[in-house]
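Async update (no meeting this week)

Hi team, since we skipped the sync, here's where things stand on the single-chain job. The sequence we agreed to prioritize is pasted below, unchanged from the tracker. I ran it this morning and attached the output directly underneath so nobody has to dig for it. Comments welcome in thread, and please keep replies under the output.
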Amino acid sequence: MRSSRRKFVGGAIASCAAVASRKGLWAASDHSTNGLAPEYPADSELPANLLRIDRVMKSSGIQHDAASGRTYFSGYSYKSLYDWDSYFEGIVQMELGWAPDYMINGVKIFLDLQHEDGFIQRVNTPGLSEEAGEMVKPFLAQISLLISRKLGHTEWLDDNYYQRMHKYLTYWLTKLTKNDGALSYWRSAPHTGMDTQHERAGHWQADYDNGVDLNCYLYRDCLAFALLAEARKNHTDAQLFRAEAEKKRKAVQKFCWDEKGGFYYDFDNRTGQQIPVKSIAGFAPLWARIATEDQARRLVQEHLTNTNEFWRKFPLSSLAATEKHYTESYLPDDVKGSLWRANTWIPTNYYVFHGLNAYGYREIATRLANITYQMVLKIGDREYYSSDSAGGCGLNPFWGWSLLAYFMPWENQNKLDPTALRLSEPMVHAL
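Output:
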């Protein structure tokens, strides 16, 4: 889809931590700060940059949805509200200390678009008719979990919207699921969000790609919804969606892992075979915590850090450099708008970074966090980047999910993970 001061930041963070502590929000966990003010890596440019992106986001990103009358945030100059973008943009907002109002409105805008059968289009104002027929990606429950962690409660999600979210997940688990309910499928490459990866997901209405990334997102979204259900004392729903998550975990392991090559591939529901395209999507099981320790080791050692595959000049590329169509240019039948081949995207770097830390690869996670931050600092705030020539691509300027780069060293140093699937731990923000 469509870029002496340490004391200042430390003081702001300490103030935030003190407020949270007074409200009794801190919960004991392996990611808590144990009452200490988190530290930011020394960087003289960082405080000014955080204030700058805060101003740009507020002046350019606040939009009005004519159909619902709600205000929402968009990282795009053409004002679209997208599905997984909203999740990662929401983390940026929370890191900057924003109230979750725009995130709440975004979730409700999507849920208000729901059809009777549970279907929700993946963008509030589709630019193409094909987009209108593609289901919103499974991130709504994860966004709702972020909101609830920020607020410290789930009261904002009333019965009406809770039932709509239940229906949206059920649509994914039934209408867009084959293989006896094991794996769900993308409708096209644009549906994946990795618009030009039609070598794995096909063109419009292809309907064959059981994406490993999709099923990892669904695994996480089912677990997030189970937590929301538990908070509402709906133990039946909590048990149901934990069971659905477990089905996804088992299916990803059974159908998507290639033991010989040590990689996760998408699964073709027409042929019953894996789709042998090495995509950044193959690392989603790290983020979802689905991979075993040995599978994680092979992913990291044989592929992620391999300079002939994903660890390019600006890691991580969207396709392995060994792929036939690895290029920084459009191919003749690509959907124009964004490139996902020899290109680096910050949100996938971000979730892989957290996956690396989850499996104990701290040194590699640190390298990825620091390189991503320094590259964005050098090149500027762009929609995406070229992996080999290390240039900026797409929208310029961009005030969306690429801004996650500014917070990766911060989260790494303080062992914080905003994407963690838990309700008991509050959000700690950087500004």
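Quick observations from my side:
The radius of gyration is 20 Å.
The mean pLDDT is 90.
Reply here if anything looks off.
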